[in-house]
Design goal:
Length: 105
């Protein structure tokens, strides 16, 4: 698909067991996000992972590995923040996020 891009992000869980990745397109760009993949293979049972846009819940995700994909796609402006947050995980654990998007202005 022409114009399809992807970006990888990571976060380390702090002493409170929280890891967070904030995603924003560069200034003056618009992203249409079609898929967000998360993974924290060391996440314990009972941990939680959430995908949010500007603080509003989009969907909960399985902490150890999950995908949010499909329509409706998310329009992400440079002023928007898409975030993935893991809670109740082991401090020092690393969470990974992979985002697929198309770019437009």
């Amino acid at each position: 698909m022409p114009g399809q891009f992807n970006s990888a992000y990571s976060a380390v869980a702090n002493a409170q067991g929280v890891a967070r990745v904030d995603i924003q397109p560069p200034r003056m760009h618009v992203w249409t996000v079609s898929q967000v993949t998360v993974e924290m293979d060391s996440a314990p049972i009972g941990s939680a992972c959430f995908l949010r846009m500007n603080g509003s819940l989009i969907t909960p995700l399985v902490s150890t590995g999950d995908v949010a994909a499909g329509e409706p796609y998310l329009q992400l402006l440079a002023t928007d923040t898409l975030s993935v947050e893991w809670r109740s995980v082991t401090p020092g654990s690393v969470g990974q996020v992979f985002v697929f998007y198309t770019e437009g202005r």
